[in-house]
Amino acid sequence: GDSVTQMEGPVTLSEEAFLTINCTYTATGYPSLFWYVQYPGEGLQLLLKATKADDKGSNKGFEATYRKETTSFHLEKGSVQVSDSAVYFCALTPAYGQNFVFGPGTRLSVLP
Amino acid sequence: DTGVSQNPRHKITKRGQNVTFRCDPISEHNRLYWYRQTLGQGPEFLTYFQNEAQLEKSRLLSDRFSAERPKGSFSTLEIQRTEQGDSAMYLCASSLSERDPNEQYFGPGTRLTVT
After folding, report:
1. How distant is the Cα of B94 from the closest Cα of chain A, in angstroms?
2. Is the pLDDT of residue B97 over 90?
3. Mutation test of the interface with chain A: which of B61, B97, B102, choosing the one with the most A Cβ atoms within 10 A?
4. Which of A42, A41, A45, A38 is nearest to A9 (CA)?
5. Is pLDDT of A65 > 70?
6. CA–CA separation, A99 vs A94, rounded Å?
7. Rounded CA gap, A90 and A54, in Å?
8. Mean pLDDT computed over every residue of chain A
9. CB under 8 Å to B1, separation ≥6 — which residues?
10. In terms of C-beta density within 10 A (0-12 exposed, 13-18 middle, 19 or more buried), how is residue A79 classed?
């Protein structure tokens, strides 16, 4: 079945450091890919998405590119802030189907 | 607040009891989803509705679980004869199929603890 794998956390960075959170997926066809973020005490929020190969999703300084050849959707940010501390989930929706398949999440802590 | 709301936010129950959770989606959204999230894991899909019709159910949804959306607005998720393994966060999400069914908006969740 479809699945999503993320790098294990926690990831701890200093403010203004460069962030990469790796995400790879297994799916048939062409799924849509997403990054969701969960801030402490809050619900999941859509961060960015990409629906076809080579698309780049971006939001709030975060970016991720849909790489079909490597089945990856790595999340990057050039300069993290303390307010970016959260759990980040990579997810996909199958080419034929409605339900999300989520990765296990990666906890990011940004220190001042 | 016009986001997805869930009640209660926390529920503690004894093993064997029945519990019911409620989800109120964003008002114009016709799709509603239920997920379960255990500690340290991502959400797992349980079921979804389009309007009042339940269109897909996960194998995770045992016969002790039932979900309804009787008028196509709010939804309830009931767990009968709760077990300790049911302890988790139960998330609800909604979307608008005509715009982008994959852009799901999540509620804050109901945390269930079975003692």
Report:
1. 12
2. no
3. B102
4. A38
5. yes
6. 7
7. 17
8. 93
9. none
10. exposed
* Contact with chain A for residue B63, Cβ under 8 A: no
Cβ of residue B40 closer than 8 Å to a chain A Cβ: yes
Instruction: Look up residue A82 and give its amino acid.
Output: V
CB atoms within 10 A of CB A76: 15
Residues of B in contact with A49 (CB under 8 A): 102-103
Say if CB A105 and CB B41 are below 8 A apart.
yes
pLDDT at B36 over 90: yes
- The amino acid occupying position B81 is R
Residue A32 amino acid letter:
S
Amino acid identity at B74: F
Stretch A57-62: mean pLDDT, rounded?
96
**CA B32 to CA B90: how far, in whole Å?**
13
Task: Give percent of chain B above pLDDT 90.
Answer: 73
Which of A32, A104, A105 lies closest to B102 in CB terms?
A: A32
Which of A28-37, B2-11, B92-101 bottoms out in mean pLDDT, i.e. has the lowest?
B92-101
Answer yes or no: do B103 and A101 touch at CB < 8 A. Answer: no
What percentage of chain A exceeds 90 in pLDDT?
78
Q: Is the pLDDT of residue A95 over 90?
A: no
Best probe of the A interface among B23, B104, B110, by most A CBs < 10 A, is B104
- Per DSSP bridges, beta strands A23-26 and A3-6 are antiparallel
